[in-house]
Write a structure and sequence with these properties.
Blueprint: E1 36-38, E2 42-47, E3 53-60, E4 62-67, E5 72-83, H1 88-92, E6 95-96, E7 101-105, H2 107-117, H3 124-129, H4 141-154, H5 159-167, E8 169-174, H6 178-181, E9 186-188, H7 191-202
Parallel strand pairs: 1-3, 4-9
Antiparallel strand pairs: 1-6, 2-3, 4-5, 5-7, 7-8, 8-9
Length: 203
């Protein structure tokens, strides 16, 4: 039979069977789902209608994720799939699709934040365990003043996000379509959206 994307086989809104007036058409064909998993990067090229190409990602382990409130994006490692709005089976098998909630490595974002604001982020445990002899790199008074002003203006991080930085993992949503574009890109969850998904994950 093959996979067909037509809707002529479906009944109408009132339940009537539609008349069958033609055979299947090539432009109604569908393909097998990509079922992109987490692993070493593996992408297949697929020829599509008009000689165009799709990038079918079979395995991906990293992608570009943006931190919206700070206006930056970094290439980070995808650790696992934590929640999926459509199917729990996709969570169990760590399948990457659009709108999947994943955990990503927090280190690249933390490195940027500490360089940009001159403040530690999510390092409370490390500060307690650090030996007393270690000294911070010296900065000029002008640089310290600039960093302090920058931090006071917009450097405050939401407590829920800061707890994730302590754990070294951030919740993010996949916004790209890995089976079509061959990429797993998205954005870090913050605010009400983060609270919503944390409640869903706890359930």
């Amino acid at each position: 039979m093959g996979i067909s994307r037509d809707s002529r086989h479906k009944r109408s809104a009132t339940g009537a069977k539609r008349s069958y007036y033609r055979k299947k058409r090539a432009f109604e064909k569908g393909r097998q789902p990509a079922a992109t998993r987490i692993g070493n990067k593996r992408i297949h090229l697929v020829r599509t209608r008009g000689g165009n190409q799709k990038y079918r990602a079979l395995r991906l382990d990293s992608g570009n994720f943006s931190w919206g409130s700070e206006g930056i994006a970094r290439k980070v490692r995808v650790i696992n799939v934590s929640f999926h709005p459509s199917n729990n089976e996709l969570v169990r098998t760590n399948t990457l699709t659009k709108s999947a909630v994943v955990q990503v490595d927090a280190a690249p974002f933390r490195t940027w934040y500490e360089a940009h604001y001159g403040q530690n982020l999510g390092r409370r445990r490390q500060q307690k365990q650090a030996p007393a002899g270690e000294e911070e790199k010296k900065k000029s008074k002008g640089v310290e003043k600039k960093l302090a002003a920058r931090y006071a203006e917009q450097g405050k991080v939401d407590p829920a996000l800061e707890r994730q930085f302590e754990a070294g993992r951030l919740f993010a949503v996949v916004a790209s379509r890995p089976g079509q574009s061959g990429r797993v890109d998205g954005y870090v969850l913050e605010g009400d959206e983060l609270a919503f998904y944390q409640r869903a994950i706890r359930k």
